[in-house]
Amino acid sequence: MRPKQLARILAQAKAPLRDAAAVNATHWALWLALDQAFPTVRTASGGRTKWNRQRTGLPKTHTLDALHVGQLGTVGQHPRTLLAVTATGRGTYTRTRTDKYGFPRLHLPRQKAFFGFQTGDLTRAVVPIGKKVGTHTGRVAVRATGSFNIRTAHGLVQGIRHKHFRLLQRADGYAYTTRREGEAHATI
């Protein structure tokens, strides 16, 4: 091992654990304050949650762990479908795109909305004829030309005219999708 790297690791190992101590002190102060205000407050460990989950025979997921926290008799039913919410943002203030050296290469429009749509809106495009025929539902990316892209659960469809689009939900900075419990989620 390199001597400089070893010295840095050993110095870090000997450093006091101020942050961990602060979290632990805050944790107990919060519990004491809640216990005084609400005498029915109880605490439980991660080990208790794991024991409850193994006893009921359900898989480890974030949702099911929340169901198994604390004192638990039995689980009669659990969710099969979840609403997954992903933060997508509301756009950017940037008016240019830069090259790899940081110089401006492309100027972006001042407005966000074109033909009544803005990037991130949940839309449905019904294309009656042509190469992209069919119904496409997903998030739209707008262009000033009126030729939009739509990202669906099946992939990206490019170059659909704005007249084929219908608005389902305005962009609010989040993407919503449903998924089965225990599956990894993909957003549209």
Fold and architecture overview:
This is HNH endonuclease. It comes from Streptomyces vastus. The protein has helices at residues 3-14, 18-37, 46-56, 62-67; strands spanning 81-87, 96-98, 104-107, 113-114, 117-118, 122-127, 134-141, 147-152, 155-161, 165-169, 174-180. It starts with a helix and ends in an 8-residue tail after the last strand. The protein has a five-stranded antiparallel sheet, with no helix packed on it. It has a two-stranded antiparallel ribbon with strand order 1-11. Strand 7 and strand 8 form a beta hairpin. It has two domains: 3-78, no CATH class; 96-180, SH3 type barrels (Roll), CATH 2.30.30. It contains four helices and eleven strands, in the order H-H-H-H-E-E-E-E-E-E-E-E-E-E-E. The protein is extended. With 188 residues, the protein is an alpha+beta fold. The mean pLDDT is 88.
